[in-house]
Write a structure and sequence with these properties.
Helix content of chain B: over 70%
Strand order of the largest sheet of chain B: 1-2
Strand content of chain B: under 5%
Structural class of chain A: alpha+beta
CATH architecture of the domain at 77-267 in chain B: Orthogonal Bundle
Number of strands of chain B: 2
Oligomer: heterodimer
Order of helices and strands of chain A: EEEHEEEHHHEHEHEEHHEEEEEEEEEE
CATH superfamily of the largest domain in chain A: P-loop containing nucleotide triphosphate hydrolases
CATH topology of the domain at 77-267 in chain B: MetI-like fold
Helix content of chain A: 10-25%
Strand order of the largest sheet of chain A: 6-7-8-3-9-10
Number of strands of chain A: 20
Number of helices of chain B: 13
CATH topology of the largest domain in chain A: Rossmann fold
CATH superfamily of the domain at 77-267 in chain B: MetI-like
Largest sheet of chain A: 6 strands, mixed
Radius of gyration of chain A: 25 Å
CATH architecture of the largest domain in chain A: 3-Layer(aba) Sandwich
Number of domains of chain A: 2
Mean pLDDT of chain A: 92
Mean pLDDT of chain B: 90
Distance between the termini of chain B: 28 Å
Low-confidence stretches of chain B: none
Chain lengths: 364, 300
């Protein structure tokens, strides 16, 4: 897969609106068949980047190549990409069928072939019984399916999805996420999705690009960005994280001793690359990787504190442990046994432990 | 379901709707019924110049005299039929011209930056601040042989002698298109302005270039505005009296002028009323059929 040339190349692309820089010198390569998610808070530039791929905005600087062709100034109606809009943008005066056929008619495809393709698309999104309905007569989930069918009907090289599930309720959204992945698998088209929902990105995407202030903070598989974020921002943005500040004391191989003066502890962390002794770093530990106990568990790192808050979520509980220094750690524990013993009370003295390998050293 | 508060709400709505409907009943339905009554009565040289349709004979049941001759008379003289047809023609041509001029204007206003839209709309409505009569008189000043337009064209050297515009159908068209343009622009603007522009992006995304997208998306979606504007211009234009009377010539045959002539020159109130009722039926029936079809299509 890596030997293939990238399907999409974004080269030092910048987009400015007046004084505001929405996208700042972004470089990005996306390969054929990927399910790529652009993830970020609102205003981070992810939608602008997507709209530049669709041709609705022109880059101020840099260029965009699709399949080796510079499309930076090609209008949307001549690009081999299709977009699924956040509002779905279904044509209200056309039936479901006519909506799906619209793009094919623009290509002057023979009528019989259009009918066939429309039928296949309706089948794929399970909307055949609704073919003659107008968009106003459909539910949100049904509209979403029609929008997907319409944007896939032309078999584009790339499908752009702008917050495609944003208008659906939680249950339907989770169900649709997996459906989208299945459909993408079936059609083999490259999907680029924009979302602010990290769970959505993690569930669907094969690679995730996390954006911050117009730039890409990190690109990687969901596993990589969760387990080994490259900055405090990414660590904080994806999932929950405990951040402990400290300075490097010494290292041996990949094992490093880090003095966390604020919480009065020396931590052991695993880090492949070299570190400078004395450097200011942050040790990040995910809440589910910490173990809560009455005494130190057989981990390497342990700190003691008092339970200050408990959030009971059913399958698990999140304990907030207040350390003597005042810093709070979040520890999540699975509620494995009914009324089980592994539960702790408010103000209980506890020890939080974790393994060296579960600490991530962050430099930025 | 009919809790006291729901009842109260219903009653409240009824109260709000009552005055306008009462007003229409009193000042539209009642005069119309009077005109209808006159159209069915016989002419007589008296005050009022028609016979009552109900006769109260002594000791007998009241006798109803319905006289349909006024209506059959409309077909006996081709003047009336011609006047109807000509009114429909003038109204139709003016409506099409108003649409052709009004659509681009409404479109431009609706697609201008938001801060310019209201001032531009104000400019469209501004002529209403002056009475229609005065504005039509000013057109006389512009269009007449020694008027502004002819003097200007002669000064430019485009023409040697004045062109006759006043007292022709052309002047009537100019007058109607000018006066009714706002009634076309406002409903068109309302539909164009609320259109979701993402739809055009979607059309472009699916391979549709801008002009084609206008034909396939914008135009069909603005049809409610086109229809509303067309009705608002066409219906009053058919019965228009002031503009053809002031700008048109003796051969400008329009139904409004005929009604005027029958009422005031011939003092034949029954025939004049019959002309008025006939034009109403001619206009209302097709519109009602249209609206029924529309509401049926919507219900589907």
């Amino acid at each position: 897969m890596t030997t293939q040339p990238p399907l999409i190349r974004i080269e030092r692309v910048t987009k400015r609106f007046g004084d505001f820089t929405a996208v700042n010198q972004v470089d990005l390569e996306i390969r054929q068949g990927e399910f790529f998610a652009l993830l970020g808070a609102s205003g981070c530039g992810k939608t602008t980047l997507l709209r530049m791929l669709g041709g609705f905005e022109t880059p101020t600087e840099g260029r965009i190549l699709i399949d080796g062709v510079d499309v930076s100034s090609v209008p949307p109606y001549e690009r081999p990409v299709n977009m699924m809009f956040q509002s779905y943008a279904l044509f209200p005066h056309m039936t479901v069928e006519q909506n799906i056929a619209f793009g094919l008619q623009q290509d002057k495809m023979p009528k019989a072939q259009i009918a066939e393709r429309v039928k296949a698309m309706l089948d794929m999104v399970q909307m055949t019984p609704y073919a003659k309905r107008k968009p106003a007569q459909l539910s949100g989930g049904q509209k979403q399916r029609v929008a997907l069918a319409r944007s896939l009907a032309k078999q584009p090289k790339v499908l752009l999805l702008d917050e495609p599930l944003g208008a659906l309720d939680k249950k339907l959204r989770e169900q649709t996420q997996l459906e989208l992945v299945n459909i993408q698998d079936k059609v083999g088209i490259t999907f680029i999705i924009v979302t602010h929902d990290q769970e959505e990105a993690m569930t669907m995407a094969s690679r995730v690009g996390i954006m911050k202030e117009g730039q890409i903070a990190q690109i990687g598989t969901p596993f990589e960005v969760y387990e080994t974020p490259n900055s405090r921002f990414v660590g904080d943005f994806i999932g929950n994280a405990n951040m402990i500040e400290g300075a490097v004391i010494s290292g041996e191989g990949a094992e490093w001793k880090i003095g966390a003066g604020k919480i009065d502890a020396t931590l052991t962390a695993h880090h492949e690359a070299g570190l400078q002794v004395g450097a200011q770093v942050t040790v990040m530990v995910r809440p589910e990787k910490m173990i809560l106990g009455r005494e130190a568990a057989p981990g390497v790192n342990s700190v003691s504190g008092k339970v200050s808050d408990i959030a009971y979520l059913g399958d698990m509980s999140i304990y907030h442990v207040k350390l003597p220094s005042g810093q709070k750690l979040q520890v999540s524990q699975a509620n494995l046994r009914h009324g089980g013993s592994g539960r702790f009370d408010y103000d209980q003295e506890v020890v939080v432990s974790w393994h060296a390998g579960d600490s991530v050293v962050l430099l930025a | 379901m009919s809790t006291p508060s729901a009842l109260k709400q219903k009653f409240g709505r009824f109260l709000v709707a009552l005055p306008p409907y009462g007003w229409l009943l009193l000042f539209f339905m009642v005069p119309f019924l009077i005109v209808l009554k006159i159209s069915l009565s016989e002419l007589q040289a008296a005050i009022p110049p028609y016979k009552p349709i109900l006769e109260w004979a002594e000791g007998a049941l009241p006798h109803l005299h319905l006289n349909f001759e006024n209506y059959s008379y409309l077909f006996s003289d081709e003047l009336y039929v011609l006047a109807y047809l000509n009114s429909l023609k003038v109204a139709a041509i003016s409506t099409v011209m108003t649409l052709l001029i009004g659509y681009p204007m409404a479109y431009t206003i609706a697609r201008s930056p938001a801060r310019y839209r209201n001032p531009l709309l104000m400019l469209v409505v501004l002529p209403f601040w002056t009475s229609l009569l005065i504005r039509v008189y000013s057109w006389m000043g512009i269009l007449k042989n020694e008027g502004l337009l002819n003097s200007f064209l002669m000064w430019l050297g485009i023409i040697d002698s004045p062109i006759q515009i006043m007292e022709t159908n052309t002047a009537v068209y100019i007058g109607i298109v000018y006066s009714y343009l706002p009634y076309m622009i406002l409903p068109l603007y309302a539909t164009l302005e609320k259109m979701d522009l993402t739809l055009l992006e979607a059309a472009a995304d699916l391979g549709c270039p801008p002009f084609k997208a206008f034909l396939k998306i914008t135009l069909p979606l603005s049809m409610p505005g086109v229809i509303a504007g067309t009705l608002l211009v066409f219906i009053p234009a058919v019965g228009e009296f002031v503009i053809p009377d002031l700008l048109g010539g003796p051969d400008t045959l329009m139904i409004g002028k005929v009604i005027w002539a029958e009422f005031f020159d011939n003092r034949d109130w029954p025939v004049a009323s019959a002309v008025a009722v006939a034009i109403l039926i001619l206009l209302v029936v097709p519109i009602m059929i249209y609206q029924r079809n529309e509401s049926r299509a919507e219900a589907k």
